[in-house]
Amino acid sequence: MTIEELLREKIGDGLVRTGSMKKSSVHQVLIHQACGDRRCFGQIASALKLVGDEDINHYMNFKYAAQCSGFNKKRIVL
After folding, report:
1. Half-sphere exposure of residue 40: CA atoms within 13 angstroms, side-chain side
2. What is the pLDDT of residues 19-74, one digit of tens each?
3. What is the DSSP secondary structure assignment for residue 50, as one 8-state letter?
4. Other CB atoms within 10 A of residue 12 CB
5. Handedness of CA 17, 21, 29, 11 (dihedral sign)
6. 75 SS3 class
7. Residues contacting 11, CB < 8 A, separation 6+
8. Using CA atoms, how far apart are residues 71 and 11, in angstroms rounded to an integer?
9. Three-state DSSP state, 2
């Protein structure tokens, strides 16, 4: 996976890829959003106890660090 791909990755896909969430849990969050819940994906997932705040923070911090790295086309190991 390149950093460019990581930056385009949706949080639900990333949390599934890292093993923090199941696809069925991602669907639950998306249903809440489709029904009008205006909270962010991570806020809903955390409130439903589908994933821990620590997992969300770890993923988002890693994604932010990748964005700041400046190596947009380099291959990274996850």
Report:
1. 8
2. 999 999 999 999 999 999 999 999 999 999 999 999 999 999 988 887 776 655 55
3. S
4. 20
5. negative
6. strand
7. 41, 42, 56, 59, 60
8. 21
9. strand
For the chain, the structural domain boundaries read: 3-69
Output the pTM of the full model: 0.82
Please calculate the CA angle 37-12-68 and round it to the nearest 5 degrees. Answer: 110
The structure tokens listed for 70 are 């400046």
Q: How far apart are CA 35 and CA 50, in angstroms?
A: 18
Asked if residue 6 lies in contact with residue 75, where contact means CB atoms within 8 angstroms, the answer is no
Distance of CA 69 to the CA centre of its chain: 19
